[in-house]
Structures are given as structure tokens and as C-alpha cells.
Q: What sequence folds into this?
């Protein structure tokens, strides 16, 4: 069965420092990976997906199939990055509909 | 600006009472999901529908939970009878082009 692991429940980083939120997955097929973000008092929203290979708000994530990881990175943290971040996996054999989420990492940027 | 809506936003009830949560997906989205968010488990998929038909409800306790889509503009999640362990935030999401759009959630407290 598919599984998404985010080992850090809480992560605090100083403003201007690099950020890395870890995500590992287990899935026998060819997955699609996503990062969703929930800012304070806002709804959960898509941040980025691996197939797009884009940088959103300075964040990037590279799918590493050898290490089964999809870590989220940003070189210089900003205060507005404080939020809850969820890594999610979409199963290719479900037509990319069903998402399995990790337990989330709460990122706090220290001014 | 089309958004998923959910009612009520907050619900406090006593153990044993029936709880009904409602969701209006974005018009035209034919796939609807119900999730439960807790501190310990993160986001768990309870059930989802495509074209109003239930596709997967394996994440839902069948003895007390039920999910339906009476029409394309309304999805409901019922808990009967409710228990304190059901206290959580329940999210609805609808999907388009491999992105899920989340509602604001219903925060349920069962005393």
C-alpha cells in the first residue's frame, strides 16, 4: 500500500536561512507527488507538483525515485512561509484522483 | 472566484448525537472528496465520489459514518452516533485537472 512519511511534525527556521521539508514515500507504481500548503486561517491549497518542475514562491521539489523522496526546499526563508505543509502522493492506477497525504510539517519562520 | 463551500464551519455536539456536514463543490467538478484532519494522523481520506457515485469509502468507519451526493451541487457526510474520538476538522475537496480544491473545513467537537 502507498504511504507518505513526513518525519518532522515541527520545523523552525530563521528568516533568511535555507528550508528543507522532508517527504518520503512508498509506492510500487509510478507516483505523482505534490506539496499542499495551509496558511493560517486559509484553506489548504496546492503549492507545487513534481511534473510541473516549477518554482512557486521560491520553493522547489525534486522527485528522487532512487531515494523515494520529494523534499521541499527554499534557499532563503521568509516570514510569510510559516504554514502547515503536506506532501501528497497520487496513485497512477487511480487516474491520478486519489491522494494520500503525509501527516504534515508545521513550519515556523523565526524573524 | 469559484470555491468549495462547507457548512457548518463549527459544530459542537454531545456524544450520541447525529452530525451532518455539507459541502458544495465547485460547479463543474465531478470528483468530490471527504477528508478528516487530526493532529496525530494528519489528513485522512474518508471517501470520494465521481459523478455522484461513491468510488472509495474504505477510510470511513462504516458503522457510524455515511457519505452521499444527493445531487451534483451537494455532498453530505453524516456521523450517527457521534463519539468524542470523531472530534476533528472535516474537509471537502473537489477536483479538476489533477488539482484538488479544498473547502474551509468543518471543525467538529464531540463532548
A:
Amino acid at each position: 500500500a502507498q504511504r507518505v512519511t513526513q518525519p518532522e511534525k515541527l520545523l523552525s527556521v530563521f528568516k533568511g536561512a535555507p528550508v528543507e521539508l522532508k517527504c518520503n514515500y512508498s509506492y510500487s507504481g509510478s507516483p505523482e507527488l505534490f506539496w499542499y500548503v495551509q496558511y493560517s486561517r486559509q484553506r489548504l491549497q496546492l503549492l507545487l507538483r513534481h511534473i510541473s518542475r516549477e518554482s512557486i514562491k521560491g520553493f522547489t521539489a525534486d522527485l528522487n525515485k532512487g531515494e523515494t523522496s520529494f523534499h521541499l526546499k527554499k534557499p532563503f526563508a521568509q516570514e510569510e512561509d510559516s504554514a502547515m505543509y503536506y506532501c501528497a502522493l497520487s496513485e497512477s492506477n487511480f487516474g491520478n484522483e486519489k491522494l494520500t497525504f503525509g501527516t504534515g510539517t508545521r513550519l515556523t519562520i523565526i524573524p | 472566484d469559484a470555491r468549495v463551500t462547507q457548512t457548518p464551519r463549527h459544530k459542537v455536539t454531545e456524544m450520541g448525537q447525529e452530525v451532518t456536514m455539507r459541502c458544495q463543490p465547485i460547479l463543474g467538478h465531478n470528483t468530490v472528496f471527504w477528508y478528516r484532519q487530526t493532529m496525530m494522523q494528519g489528513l485522512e481520506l474518508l471517501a470520494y465520489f465521481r459523478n455522484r457515485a461513491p468510488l472509495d469509502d474504505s477510510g470511513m468507519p462504516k458503522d457510524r459514518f455515511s457519505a452521499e451526493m444527493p445531487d451534483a451541487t451537494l455532498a453530505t457526510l453524516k456521523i450517527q452516533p457521534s463519539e468524542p474520538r470523531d472530534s476533528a476538522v472535516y474537509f471537502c475537496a473537489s477536483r479538476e485537472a489533477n488539482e484538488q480544491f479544498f473547502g474551509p473545513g468543518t471543525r467538529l467537537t464531540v463532548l
